[in-house]
3-oxoacyl-ACP reductase
Amino acid sequence: MSDTRTAVVTGAARGIGAAVAKRLAKDGLQVAVLDLDEAASQKVADEINADGGKAIGVGCDVSNEEAVATAVERVANELGAPTVLVNNAGILRDNLIFKMSADDWDAVLNVHLRGAFLMTRAAQAYMTKAKFGRIINLSSTSAQGNRGQVNYSAAKAGMQGFTKTLAIELGKFGVTANAIAPGFIATDMTAATAERVGMEFEAFKAAAAQAIPVQRVGTPDDIAAMASFFASDEAGFVSGQVVYVAGGPED
Ligand code: NAP
């Protein structure tokens, strides 16, 4: 263990989470790469370690209360008190409301909202003790409403209220909470959406780019850059904010 800060990034075996984990490691933090599949998490951790950082892979379902408690304790023991938390794990179960099953509603709410709640409750114990903490939650432009995503947009709007309340409750302990609301980011998640609507991913991205003011879709590194700022010492007076990282104004 060392004095170096420890971050936990959920859903970090790929996509945005993996980019955030790698960026925080470059910023000098130790990183727990947490995802459902421990082997996939360890692969990202190995890449970070090979690049001169320090990381461990942790297998954990963020919606499982016991698994979360065990995982966060393991991070504290193996790396150090987790004082930076990025709640990034997410899934899609898109459908129009008349066709959406209750299971698809529950699955999405469980991973995004219950998962963020359980991870944050476990990690804030270390943050408040350390009198320092940075909580970064992944919302989405879909929080404003998006056809076929009643479950996901409700979860992502919920992440914003969750973030603001954390900021109010935990501020006096030196803990900030902020949300990043990405627009279209090229990852497996958006590739799956392209497949669902029957489009080639390249054509899907090109069509999306046309509607974005900066005329391109986002990359996981665009989100990692924002997470890097929110996680930093110098961001200590920024709390309870939702930043749309979407290539244009969204709110
Ligand atoms: P992604 O490529 O699908 O990656 C999500 C990761 O979360 C996967 O590794 C997945 O693991 C993991 N995960 C799912 N359920 C989990 C659980 N119960 N416990 C732990 N890990 C779990 O998605 P992404 O595009 O990088 O998105 C990351 C976050 O950004 C999500 O919260 C998403 O909603 C948000 N976001 C993305 C976009 C976008 O355009 N991509 C836009 C706005 C917001 P498996 O691979 O094992 O399923």
Remarks:
- DSSP finds eight helices and seven strands in the chain.
